[in-house]
Amino acid sequence: MKSYPVVIIGGGMAGASLALALANIGIENAVFEAVAPETNAQPGFDDRTVALSAASLNILNKLGLEKDLSSVAAPIKTIHVSDQGHCGFARISAQECDVPALGAVIENWQLGQALNQAISKQPLIDYHAPAKVVDIEQSADEATLRIELDSGTQQVKAGLVVLADGARSPLRQQLHIDAQINDYHKSAIVCNLTTQLPHQNCAYERFTKDGPLALLPLTKGRMALVWSKPTKEAQSLIELDETEFAKKLEEAFGARLGRITKVGSRKSFPLIQLKAEILFRGRCVLIGNAAQSLHPIAGQGFNLGLRDVADLTELLVAAKQKAGKDPQALMQAVGSHQLLRQYQQKRSPDREQTLWVTESLARLFSNPWLPLSISRNLLLKAMDVAPVAKGLFASQAMGFGFNNSQMASHEE
């Protein structure tokens, strides 16, 4: 029976990033992904886009993806936040912060392609897809996984099992890890589009009575739309023809970019916020959407998951150094109760703050009550003119407002 120090369940963006991070520090690992890469159906690599903070870009660059992402990720030079029907707004620019960019926007499938290509070149990663993990048995010393492959059922042993299998993780439920779920009863309409005026690498976040509307810069002059609407209304908007949909969008967004000249294929995704009550049980640990799934209002979902990856990797570096050249000692160390308790404690402040901020923004900017509307517009104005408030806004937007660990580099 094959044994690995670490087995990762789920080869989406968080799972693939962790696999590369561990390989870079010399830890052999296996990835079991339910969907074959060639089907282009991996839910983490779909038609949506991800806004990468500057801190997340640093982490991905340390994974060796800088060259792959430079040609397909559009830098964010400016962020513009406004409230529909009110005069308050806030702006922040990379120039003011003395940085090349506040972040970047990339289509999920392109990030997935870069991650998969990097994994295919890494001998310390044993990648299996399609593969379904149907059962995990744990003892004090190891975990045994039963896996269904095209070639039949097999078993593998692991010192640490990482669940990166998404918000609806069946294995999280099997481990009896409860999760708090807040269903917003809304959906996010996503599509790519082009506008009459160039976006000039500005990311727009506009709050409407139904929820946030984001237009994010993409390469080739395109923009990515993420528009929160009540689920029934979202479906009605998707069914409109391109001209009518563009008209509705122009009414909600305004005329900052002129007319909407082209609208791509539209899809919608339900909006929920999920928080696992605990981050580990036995030798199994949660990262990414399996640990928490966020409303897209602050664009922090994958950025938070990538910080899970960074913090877990940092702890595993120390475990590897302590174990030395002994494979059995490494198996014991990577899934120890002490290490996983440290991971949970390390992630707690970042998780709590990000979840709270995201939830608060979602409620604050979708409440039409007049006194609250006045207050939030005063807040936006203060953020735009006060250097301290603007600095905090910029720090959070770039992902440096939290206690981020830096991805460790491996030196032989």
Description of the molecule:
This protein has 412 residues and is of the alpha+beta class. It is elongated, with a radius of gyration of 22 Å. It has helices at residues 13-24, 54-62, 66-70, 94-97, 108-120, 170-174, 231-239, 242-253, 301-323, 327-334, 337-364, 370-385, 387-397, and strands at residues 2-9, 29-32, 49-53, 74-76, 78-83, 89-93, 103-107, 125-128, 131-138, 143-149, 152-163, 179-195, 202-208, 211-217, 222-230, 260-263, 267-276, 280-281, 284-286, 292-293. Strands 5, 6, 12, 13, 14, 15, 16, 17 and 20 form a 9-stranded mixed beta sheet that branches. α1 (13-24) packs parallel to α5. It is 38% helix and 31% strand.
Strand content: 25-35%
Helix content: 25-40%
General form: elongated
Oligomer: single chain
Q: Which whole number gives the mean pLDDT?
A: 86
Radius of gyration: 22 Å
Q: How many beta-strand elements? A: 20
- Number of alpha- plus pi-helical segments: 13
Biggest sheet layout: 9 strands, mixed
Give the low-pLDDT segments: 367-394, 402-412
Structural class: alpha+beta
State the distance separating the first and last CA atoms: 29 Å
Task: Record the SSE blueprint.
Layout: E1 2-9, H1 13-24, E2 29-32, E3 49-53, H2 54-62, H3 66-70, E4 74-76, E5 78-83, E6 89-93, H4 94-97, E7 103-107, H5 108-120, E8 125-128, E9 131-138, E10 143-149, E11 152-163, H6 170-174, E12 179-195, E13 202-208, E14 211-217, E15 222-230, H7 231-239, H8 242-253, E16 260-263, E17 267-276, E18 280-281, E19 284-286, E20 292-293, H9 301-323, H10 327-334, H11 337-364, H12 370-385, H13 387-397
Parallel strand pairs: 1-2, 1-11, 2-8, 5-13, 11-19
Antiparallel strand pairs: 3-7, 4-7, 5-6, 9-10, 10-11, 12-15, 12-16, 12-17, 13-14, 14-15, 17-20, 18-19
Helix pairs in contact: 1-5, 1-9, 9-10, 9-11, 12-13
